[in-house]
Design goal:
By secondary structure, the chain is α+β, with helices and mostly antiparallel strands. Among the domains are: 1-53, 2-Layer Sandwich (Uridine Diphospho-n-acetylenolpyruvylglucosamine Reductase, domain 2), CATH 3.30.43; 168-262, 2-Layer Sandwich (Enolase-like, domain 1). It contains eleven helices and twelve strands. The protein has helices at residues 12-20, 32-37, 73-78, 80-85, 87-95, 99-104, 107-113, 120-126, 140-143, 210-218, 243-262, and strands spanning 5-7, 24-26, 45-48, 58-61, 64-68, 130-133, 137-139, 158-164, 168-175, 182-191, 194-200, 207-208. A hairpin with a 2-residue loop joins strand 4 (58-61) and strand 5. The radius of gyration is 18 Å and the shape is globular. It starts with a strand and ends with a helix. The relative contact order is 0.12. It holds the Pfam family FAD_binding_5.
Length: 263
């Protein structure tokens, strides 16, 4: 490691003051700390958000499920409120990493990092959620902007995420066996505003599959998307899978997600 200062503020206002002065916020540290060890990130000051209870918690408000940014993955997976309102979201949280990662990682940290193979971005985009920061509300369709890129300003903090409760939803992923990230993950949701299909692991970041959304809007069934293709030219290719393989997996995972949503 290298020399840096560490702050653990006791209030959101104190945390915001440090971040606006140039401090780097750290939530669960599951991405930032490994990046620092590899010298891919070198913040001069860390601002630990773990002591801010107002940034954690799960509650239902009308037709929305509101989850604080510092809520741990295992808390989402084990929450009775999440299981009752959006069981697909609890199921997704249970699939993240391993037990240690789920005990430390946070919803807000994952969404802010926007890893192209992360799970939570697919739920946020697939459900049409709203990201609430310390200064504004950002619709999911506007939030994710490509590889590790979001609409967040450098000194902006995610406070909570508001998930509309869908009529039905499901998430299915094909795991990369070592990292347990999604080689391909597909979140399918039938909502009051229509069908949404979000894909993670396939390219430069999470994206909506509009062709599948249109097909499922006509008939919410696995058969409706059986012949809907995914452009392999839009998929990434690496030692874990070619772009053609990933494109094929999108269709397979999407059909399984619809089957699961209907079960």
């Amino acid at each position: 490691m290298y020399a840096f200062t560490y702050e653990r503020p006791a209030s959101r206002d104190a945390a915001l003051q440090l971040v606006r002065a140039g401090g780097k916020p750290i939530a669960g540290g599951q991405t930032l700390l490994p990046s620092m060890r590899l010298r891919l990130a070198a913040p001069e000051q860390l601002v630990d958000l773990a002591a801010l209870p107002e940034l954690a918690g799960i509650r239902r408000e009308g037709d929305q499920l509101v989850i604080g940014a510092m809520t741990r993955h295992h808390q989402v997976a084990e929450s009775d409120a999440v299981r009752a309102a959006i069981p697909a979201l609890a199921h997704m949280a249970q699939l993240i990493g391993d037990r240690q990662v789920r005990a430390r990682g946070t919803l807000g940290g994952s969404v802010a990092n926007n890893d192209p193979a992360a799970d939570y971005p697919a739920a946020v985009l697939g459900l049409g959620a709203t990201v609430q920061t310390d200064r504004r509300s950002i619709a999911a369709d506007d939030f994710f902007q490509g590889l590790f890129a979001t609409a967040l300003e450098d000194d902006e903090l995610i406070c909570e995420i508001r998930f509309p409760i869908p009529q039905r939803a499901a998430y299915v992923k094909f795991r990369q066996p070592a990292s347990r990230f999604a080689l391909i993950g597909v979140f399918v949701a039938q909502t009051a505003g229509g069908v949404r299909v979000a894909v993670t692991g396939g390219g430069n970041g999470v994206f909506r599959h509009t062709a599948m959304e249109q097909a499922l809007s006509s008939s919410f069934s696995p058969e409706a998307i059986a012949n809907v293709a995914t452009d392999e030219n839009e998929m990434s290719s690496d030692l874990h899978g070619s772009s053609a393989y990933r494109a094929h997996l999108v269709g397979v995972m999407a059909r399984r997600a619809v089957e699961q949503a209907l079960a």
